[in-house]
Structures are given as C-alpha cells and as structure tokens.
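Project standup — Tuesday

K.O.: blocked on the structure for the chain from last sprint. Re-posting the sequence here as requested.
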Amino acid sequence: MRTRLLLTGVALLTAAAGALRYTSVSQVLAFVVAGGSLAGLAWVVAFSTEQVGQRFGPAVTGVLQSTLGNLPEFFVVVFALSAGEVVVAQTSIIGSIFANALLVLGGVLVAGARTAKDGVMRFSVRLPRDNATLLLLATFLIVILSIASQSGSPAAHHVKAISIAGAVALLVTYVVWLADYLRSDIPTAPAPEGEATFSFAGSVALLGIAGVGAAFVSDWFIHALRPAMDSLGVPDAFAGLVIVAIAGNAVENTAGFTLALKGESDLAISVVKNSVAQIAAFLFPALVLVSLLFSTTLTFLLAPVFVGALAATALALWQITADGEARAFEGTALMATYAILAVVAWFQ
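H.V.: unblocked you, prediction finished:
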C-alpha cells in the first residue's frame, strides 16, 4: 500500500510539472516542481531496478537501468542541438560522464564502504576494468583530436569526418562488449513475496514508464532552468557541466546510493558503471551521428580543460575500482575531484 501511494504521489507531481511547463506562472515554481518530479521518478526507477534485479543478475539489470536512466541526457542534447546550443550539448554529455564517474560513483563507494562490516566495499572486477577500457578508448579519440586542433595539424581541418569515423568505431566496440557482457550474467533467485514486490512484467513496464517520464520532465526542468540561471548569473559551462548533469543523473544518484546502502554492491556498481560506459561509448557517439540531421553538428572536439579532466577521470577510475575493492576515502577522493572540476567550470 505504501509503495502504491508513493507511485501515485510521483504521478501527480509529474502531472503538475507538465501543467506548469505550459502556463505563465513563475519559472522558479516550475523549476522546483520539475526538480521534485525528477527526484520522484528517480526513486521509481531505483525501485523498479531493484525488483528486476531480484530476477536477473547485475549485468542485465545494470544495462537496462542505465539505458532508461540515460534517456534524459539523450533528449536534453537533442533539444540543445536543435536550438543550436553546441556548448550546452557537449557540456551536458561530458558533465554526465563526470557526474556519474566521480560524484555518483564516489557516493556509492562511500555508502558501500560504510555499510560493509570491515569498511571495505567489494564487487566484481570485470565491469570496472571493462568500463575503464571503454572510457580510455573514448578519451583516446578526444585527446588526439584536441592535440591535432591545438597543434595546427592537417587533421584539424577534418574534425567532423574524424568524429564520424570515431563514433562508428566506438559504437562497434560497445556492441561487441555488450553482447559478451550480457552473456556472462547469471539469473538470481526469484524475489520474495511481499507488498512491495511487483510482477516481472509490471516491474519492467514501471521502469520503462519512469524512464520515458524522466525524459519529458528533464525537458521541462531545463526549460525552467535557463531563466533561473540567467537571473542568478550562473555560467553556461557550470550550468551544463554541473546542474544539468546532476539533474539528468538523478536516476543513477538514487538507484546506486540506495542499492549500496542495502549492501547490494555488485548491482550498485553495475548501475553506475554501466551508465558511464554507455554515455562515453554509446550515447556520445550515437549523438554525434544523430547530429548530422541538424544544421548544428556535434563532434568530439572539446575545450582543453575538459580533455585533461576526462583523461584524469579515466585513470582515476582504473586506479580506484580495478581491484574490486574500495574504501570510503577513495569514494571521497572521487567526489573531491568532482568538486574541484565544478569550481573550474564556474570560472570557465
């Protein structure tokens, strides 16, 4: 009963956010309600993910959750590109990588370590290592494009063509990895009966509805965010890299942290790590190809400061999670890295 009441509350809040989007009321009120709705939908995705995860292993569950959880990022970037906002589109994508890999994962590691009896969070090593490989591959493409651009190399005149070829290479690699990764999953025991347990079909349907709902609410949130940020004098890079990224990744924030607190380390890591891998090796290259449909195209050429931050992030992830163990201070270090990046973005 309690779960159904919460779901009803989230539905009503989402309806209110939609109504405020198309009225002339205060943008601040619309922003607050849309933010509350996004948080509520994030809880629904977290709940549905846990239900599905009780019937499948962490690989299938993590991929399913990250795919639906990343819908807001996809729509935000598409809306930005259609409006010609290339900077917002790029910072939204890389901001999502930073938010998941540093802030969200850091919080998950702290929560998991605090929950563990010996203060050490333990998880399967395959996904962190695979994730680091995919992120390093995407970083390689971004770094060499930046070097070519900064050095005046002849390749700098072919950024669009190189981005298209790189996008195809990343997508092929991701699909090959995903097929093998999903085959490694092992179904777990059925979920125990209880009032909060949904049927498998119901859980998947709820997960899909919440994911799509999060995409729409993200658009309403961004629509109200722009006037609010302009009135407060918040820089575009900070808005895209921090505020939009955190809002768009509310799903991973809630799901990963909740699962870590419950001691479900593998599923918590799978939710966050799959999202990082999917954004870097699937969402970003897919959006590069989709942008060819617009007058404003997206490429892998980023500002040097973000190129350096991305390379450092990939190395940090390898260093901290490749051994399958993490302590609270390592999670804190990831969050501190994100805090430093946020300050830089403010002055960017």
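K.O.: great, moving the ticket to review. The first strand starts at residue 120 and ends at 122. Confidence is low (pLDDT under 50) at residues 188-196.
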